């Protein structure tokens, strides 16, 4: 697949760290011009891409807001002329509480960042892709898009919603040369887990038959495949990458 994305433009949200950063780097490695987007800019992702000889531009966006998602897509096109691939990856774990103790604000926040953002981004990405004759979208769902996990009702609800949105959009645009899928990571060793202490992480490890947490690059490789022509028959799909978590 070396340089298989030559001439392509890839947009990645939540790209400042973790799975988003790993995927942005791989898109660039395979020849794509990358729009690196996040609510914050530490400069790291763009610098790594440029140091490796790739091309990337940072665009700040709060994807929980529709107007910023619309602007992000418009700025991507203004910068590189088109948008061939979109990886809607931004997300948070959110408030940790049993449902009755979860605050209204906490629930609303995780739904906005993890679910509404995917709807907003796809709304404007798809509109752009229809005009140019096609494209590929990959959304970050989770293993918790099909099962529950105590004390994370907002996150679980949001990720179930991402799966549903992905399936529905995949159906609606499958005849328009737009493929839409979602990846479902298990627990991956990223900054998203920084709020969990060492003993908490150890308890997560044992839930994965493979015996460890995942690595961002392992998820990125799946995203790359789904974004490529090798996955030309894949749309509306849910693709777990979870060290055996869901097989139990």
Give a verbal description of the structure.
Strands 3-2-1-4-5-6-7 form a seven-stranded parallel beta sheet, sandwiched between helices. It is built from seven helices and seven strands. 42% of the residues lie in helices and 16% in strands. The chain has one domain (9-242): Rossmann fold (3-Layer(aba) Sandwich). With 248 residues, it is of the alpha/beta class.
Q: TL;DR?
A:
The protein has seven helices and seven strands, in the order E-H-E-H-E-H-E-H-E-H-E-H-H-E. The protein is an alpha/beta fold. Strand 5, helix 5 (153-173) and strand 6 (178-185) form a beta-alpha-beta unit.
Keywords for this structure?
7 strands, single chain, 7-stranded parallel beta sheet, Rossmann fold, 248 residues, 7 helices, alpha/beta, globular
What is the topological layout?
Layout: E1 9-13, H1 18-29, E2 33-38, H2 44-51, E3 55-60, H3 66-80, E4 85-88, H4 104-132, E5 135-140, H5 153-173, E6 178-185, H6 198-205, H7 216-227, E7 238-241
Parallel strand pairs: 1-2, 1-4, 2-3, 4-5, 5-6, 6-7
Helix pairs in contact: 1-7, 3-4, 4-5
| Biggest beta-sheet profile | 7 strands, parallel
- Name given to the CATH homologous superfamily: NAD(P)-binding Rossmann-like Domain
Beta-strand proportion: 15-25%
Number of strands: 7
Strand order within the widest sheet?
Answer: 3-2-1-4-5-6-7
Poorly predicted sequence stretches spanning 5 or more consecutive residues: none
Under the CATH scheme, which architecture would be assigned?
3-Layer(aba) Sandwich
What is the helix tally?
7
What's the CATH class, please?
Alpha Beta
Q: For the CA atoms, what is the radius of gyration?
A: 17 Å
Which range best describes the helical content: under 10%, 10-25%, 25-40%, 40-55%, 55-70% or over 70%?
A: 40-55%
Mean pLDDT: 96
* CATH fold-level label: Rossmann fold
Number of domains: 1
Distance between the termini: 33 Å
Q: Any idea what the shape is?
A: globular
């Amino acid at each position: 697949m070396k340089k298989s994305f030559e001439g392509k433009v890839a947009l990645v949200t939540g790209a400042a760290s973790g799975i988003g950063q790993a995927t942005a780097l791989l898109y660039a490695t395979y020849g794509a011009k990358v729009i690196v987007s996040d609510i914050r800019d530490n400069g790291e992702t763009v610098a790594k891409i440029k140091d490796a000889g790739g091309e990337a531009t940072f665009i700040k966006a709060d994807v929980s807001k529709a107007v910023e998602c619309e602007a992000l897509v418009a700025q991507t096109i203004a910068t590189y002329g088109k948008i061939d691939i979109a990886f809607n990856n931004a997300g948070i774990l959110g408030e940790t509480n049993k449902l009755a103790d979860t605050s209204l604000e906490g629930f609303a926040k995780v739904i906005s960042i993890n679910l509404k953002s995917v709807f907003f981004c796809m709304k404007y990405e798809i509109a752009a892709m229809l005009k140019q004759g096609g494209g590929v979208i990959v959304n970050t769902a989770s293993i918790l898009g099909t099962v529950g996990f105590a004390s994370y009702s907002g996150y679980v609800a949001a990720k179930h919603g991402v799966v549903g949105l992905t399936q529905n959009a995949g159906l609606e645009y499958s005849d328009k040369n737009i493929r839409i899928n979602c990846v479902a990571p298990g627990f991956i060793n990223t900054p998203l887990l920084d709020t969990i202490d060492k003993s908490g992480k150890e308890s997560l490890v044992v839930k994965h038959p493979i015996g460890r947490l995942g690595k961002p690059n392992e998820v990125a490789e799946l995203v790359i495949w789904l974004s490529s022509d090798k996955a030309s028959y894949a749309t509306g799909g849910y693709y777990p990458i979870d060290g055996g978590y869901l097989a139990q």
